Amino acid sequence: MKIAINTLFITEERGGPKTYLLNLIRAFIELDSQHQFFLFVSRYNENIFKDYKNKIRKIIIPLSRYNRILRFLSEQIFIPYLIHKYGIDILYTQGNLAIYFCPCKQIIGIQGLLVFNRLKKKLRLDTNSRLINLFFKYMIPFSAKRADRIIVVSTFTKNCLLKEISIREPKIKVIYEGVDDSFLSKRSHSSFLTVKLNKPYILFVGILFKYKNVDKLIAAFSFLKKEKKIPHYLLIIGRDHKGYLQELKDLAKRLNMKKWIVFLGQLPHEVLPNYYKNAGLFVYPSSIESFGLPILEAMACGTPVIASNRTSIPEIVGNAGLIVDPDNIEELAEAIWRVLTDKELRENLIKKGYERIKQFSWEKTAKETLKVFEEVYYENIT
Questions:
Q1: Domain spanning 181-359 has what CATH number?
Q2: In the list 25, 98, 155, 299, which could disulfide-bond 353, CB 3.0-4.6 Å?
Q3: 12 confidence band (pLDDT: 50, 70, 90)
Q4: Where are the domains of the chain?
Q5: Distances in Å between the alpha carbon of 279 and those of 69, 96, 193, 244, 351?
Q6: Phi-psi bin for 27: left (phi > 0), alpha (psi -120 to 50), beta?
């Protein structure tokens, strides 16, 4: 079976989706299946997949820069031609949108919850322009109906899709993400950190979108420093988004926490395990996530987790972390204090975290994804 993976959705700035696709492709290769894989790439993202140069055939689509509309038009024009040319049997597009005149069976992956207008209105989130919202309003239902299967990464995402669009439930397959093996090794020494600290620290990892609620975490941390005299630093790892980093730095300064809050920016993926493994606690107060991979990365590193009670996050955390209302700063601070001071609770969370991550692996993700491909393919030939 010839399987083409459309990667035009992926850019260097795409955090979760890029991590997902890179790990999925690597797992496909390691499974050593009899299938033949093709990657549809562009000039702006070809280098992201350089490690697979001799293992998967890359087909370059002439698109020099990323733009949602340009990407969509390029997909509609070039991909049907390439499917014919290379005799593709299955097309997999992770980036939410289907091909209208697709000559083969196609499967799409819907990951981002921000494409669901009803959910955004409920959570009072408006991160896209009116044009993009209008685009998603019509193109997501169109894509969901054109696709032969839809893969989502959580049951919460599946339920959002069913509420938003009138489609058959069996058409949607929930396949969880996995945890990179590099997060499963033994605890590293603090000397591996790129920043030197003389005291323990609390950790956040993620792109600095406003809905990640890092401002609420800073407020809770400030309360604990002043009222409980905790010795910890707060480390924030993740790239800026539309200048929000400066707002967070200004907040830290107003709260007299500039000395204790360290903004490290975006770090290479391979160094992240060191920061997780040496953290006293990982806090993830995001309001909207289709999955929340950093939660599992922290658990895999033996770090206790506090996370929000919103969207798919409780589904991923299970019983292996403390769940809080991210808008309640007092509740968030209390949870942090409990984990830092209650040794029995802390050890129990670490133990449950190790058990929880056994349910998630990229090998399992790849096997389940290939099973969907095969089901659709055999429907095509029978």
A1: 3.40.50.2000
A2: 299
A3: confident
A4: 2-178+361-381, 181-359
A5: 41, 35, 11, 24, 16
A6: alpha
The model's pTM is 0.92
Q: How many CA atoms lie within 13 A of 97 on its CB side?
A: 24
The CATH code that applies to domain 2-178+361-381 is 3.40.50.2000
Does the fold of domain 181-359 match that of domain 2-178+361-381? yes
Q: What is the longest distance spanned by two Cα atoms in the chain?
A: 68
Query: Tokens 């730095």 belong to which residue?
Result: 249
